[in-house]
Every structure is written in C-alpha cells, then in structure tokens.
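Section 5.1 Outputs to date
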Amino acid sequence: MSIRDNIEMLEQQIYVACSEDDYETVRQLEDQLEMLRTRVDFLHEGDRLDDNWVNFEDTSK
C-alpha cells in the first residue's frame, strides 16, 4: 500500500470517527496522518518520492 493510499484511508477513518463523535480516535488518526504527511514532505525535499519505498505500518492496534 502506498503512502498516498494510507493517507486517503486515514482521512476516511477520520471522517467516520467524526460522524460517530469519537474524538479520541480522531486525535489518534490525525497524529498518524501528520506523521505520514511529514514523511511525504521529507521525501519531497530530496525529490525521491517513491510510494512503495516507505511502508506505513499501523501501530495503533
């Protein structure tokens, strides 16, 4: 799964958690999303973004 796919998945999970008023989960998911976006920014600095180069593992489980 690519980083972009993971970002989209987290955004969808945030939407669901918001609709269920589960704000603790929203905060956790937003933290994960921020971490991924930081990785993307870091990789863009070197102009070597390869979605399959860095795999995101969900450590929340």
